[in-house]
Amino acid sequence: GFGKSTHHVLRRVADIKKSSGKIPSAAQLDKLFDSEFNVPFATTAGHSIMKRAARRLVDRYINDWHEDLDSVWEVERLFELHLNSVIVVGRADVILHSEDQAVPKLTIVDYKTYDSTRPDHDAGDQLRTYTAAARAEGYQVGSAILHNLKQSDREEVSVNPVDVNKTVAQAEAWAKDISKGEFVAKPQTKKCNGCDYKRICQHRI
Question: What pLDDT is stored for residue 118 in this prediction?
Answer without folding.
Answer: 52
